[in-house]
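Help! Submission page says 'invalid entity' but I think these are all valid:
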Amino acid sequence: MTRSQISPELEARIRYLEDPINQGQGFGQSDWAWLLILGIVGPVVLLVLGWFL
Amino acid sequence: MTMQTEQTSLPTDVKRATADRDAWPLLPAERDWTQRQLFVVLVVSAVATWCYVIGQYVGYYLNFWQGCATLIAGSMIGMLMVTLAVVPMATRFGIDSIATSKAQFGSHGWIITMFLQYVSIIGWNSLLLIFFSKSAVQLLNTLGLLGAGTEAIALPIFNTVACLAVYVMLLRGATGVERVSKVLFLFIVGVGAWILFTLLTQNAAALATAQPTSASEDSVWNYTTGIEIGIVSLVAWWPYIGAMVRVVPDAPKATLPSMLGMGLPVPLLSVIGLATFLVLGEPDPAKWLTQLGGPLFGSIALLFVIAANFGSSVAGVYASAVGLKHLPFFNGLSWKWTVAIALAPVGIVGIVVPDLFFNNFGNFLAFLGVMFAPLCGIQIVDYFLLRQQTLSIRAIYDTRVGSPYYFLGGVNPAAVVAMAAGFGTYIYLLNPVSYASHFPYQFLTASLPTFVVGGLVYWLVTKLVCIPRGWGDYPRD
């Protein structure tokens, strides 16, 4: 049987963060909208316009 | 198998003063940057002389307006890839980019991403500090404070001074990064905008007629190459972004700063390099501005470079040092020694072989696309599709045999095969050394197919090999 030592502080941090309440929230609807506009729609529009410049 | 642990209580509302100086997950109380603070840090990190060189490379193939369009569009697409790959995991648990890759590469296989991060940041920071030193020498020459022929001595001295200054700032960890950014932000944004405005308004006629020097006969190829340069320049932020965004409490606070603070300033500043290169044949606007407004304008442009490069170097070395902390050797090493080891190669390159990266920057950019485009595809497929946004913070730090992210001998074969497939795809589509390309590069770029192939192969190997064997702790359908 192998064992490894984990720092008590790291263990405490992990234990705390295992509770979903203590985790950071993911992307919300508005974030996805911004990502779509800034990362796909905007660039596509720019590329179409830019082709004719 | 059990982990030897002690029951311990860590007050969750108490901030451990040095939490940002290692690779452990940050607790909510330690992730206290606001959206604005993150935006400032990312802008200062993003804005540096590399933007001029990026603009120069686009200027080889495209006129000014097409260059602007492809730079901005390509950069925002690249930033989207990196944001989706890293930000959700990094902001969920307060972890850096390397830690986010452990679920995909395995509890030992993450060494691959750590190597990529280390090499990439050495390359970028060497370039920055070489520019820093050259600009400092040029500034002192302009002000009449340095004699002719002293460059060979002055350059290594300034490089050393820059490294020492970066080192001192980073003794404060993320706080040092944030403080440098706060001081430099207004100067960088203000002067950057002034340079851009001055160049565009004073030289509108020249810009309208300037033609690229190395454009191919295939206008579609040229246009696609502009997009490709934009994409690879921003996927290169993969090593940096985790260490920055992990200090905000959640993904919504990181979304706009990432896209607008890191994604947009790079192409906007690259436009300066593009414009200068098209009109003058070199990307550095200092000489152009000196022609416009004498030594004063030139000095301001040089001070801008010095400030911008310093800020970006601080951020880059910080991310590199945090990444190194994942290695067992660095766990017990003090932060000051970790920073020194992260910084040492940058200093050595800048002093011993300063022109190495300088003269091969285009190839360096292409190799970044080879490495980081498939990596982004892998992470996005893994987190959003295969894991359905479930992730174990314990498994990320559990390196024991048989731990959830151990896979096969500590390495996930799906990630290795996917990276290889992505590498092969990119090399076929665009040779990063010669820039020779094959169909359908001119319609798709090289990074986008590489991103898709990397993600697709990862998905296939995971479904066919890893999940049936119970590797990787994937949720059951």
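Support: the input was valid. A stray whitespace character was the problem, and the output above is from the cleaned input. Residues 7 and 44 of chain A are 49 Å apart (CA to CA).
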